[in-house]
Amino acid sequence: MSTNKIQTENLTNRGRGRPKGAPNKNTQAIKDMLLASLDQAGGQQYFLRQAEENPNAYMALIGKIIPAEVKNQITGADGGPVQHAIKVKFGD
Hints:
mainly alpha; about 60% helix; flat
């Protein structure tokens, strides 16, 4: 297959698929099942029990969820990325 044909085939498929940021249907289905099972297991009370009985696993879950939530909530000026600067001074 020639390079030109490969490029042409790729260009004809450009823009197909789900839009950027749209959840995968399977991923959403799994999340829905997990939430339903959490309700059946006792919801918040279940998490409290896990915090006491399995603190390492509970904290690992917190460590995975919190950064994703914070990342989605914090933005810089005009909704852009957060800008930061670090100054380092050596000596006097």
